[in-house]
Request: fold
Amino acid sequence: MSKAVQKLFTEIAPKYDFLNHCLSLTIDRRWRDRAVGRLKGQKLTRILDLCAGTLDLSQGLLEEFPRAQVVAVDFSLAMLESGRQKVATSMACHLLCADGHSLPLLDESFDAVVCGFGIRNLECRQRAIEEIHRVLKPGGHLLILEFFRPEGGLAKAFYQTYGRFVIPKLGGLISKNPEAYQYLQDSIQRFYSIYEYQALLRDNGFSDVETQKLSGGIAHEILACKSPKIED
Reply:
């Protein structure tokens, strides 16, 4: 995990929620609500919120699955602390500051893993997906929300205009940390396309990979299943 990226998120933690909602015109709230809704009806007792940030997804998961235990992991303690009040009334949410490349969690110990706009920040992509696969139970679900590298259409136009000029400048102005919001734009351009990430999942033991464009492809939702073990 890059210490530089960790430092960026620690520095912007106090204004992270405000800027997320401001820069997305609050659309990010709807994306997260939709994602949690995709798991509705599943019998989930333990859920891992990976790259949990300020705990928006953890909060939604606790509301949707009040009997489940949620473990929220992030590499920035400041981010977790900034969101702690969102889950303060629940005894079923456990916060853990840890590196997503090397999770201090038992094998096959979660029914679902969710990751909202954080998988891109795990720089060793292969190692990160191996860790997710390791902690998921066979048949368990992986749900990812992410900004993938755009390859055409509305999404590409968005990132070449609003993403290139508005987000770094406005985010930098409000947060007083222009490097953090320039990193957001740059990291998207260096990341996988949605098709490349689908292939990565399938190559690493995931099946039933479903994708959905959000807001014309500005973001994407992926729902996949860890393939069950094949008995000899």
Notes: The first helix runs from residue 3 to 12. The radius of gyration is 17 Å. The chain has a mean pLDDT of 93.
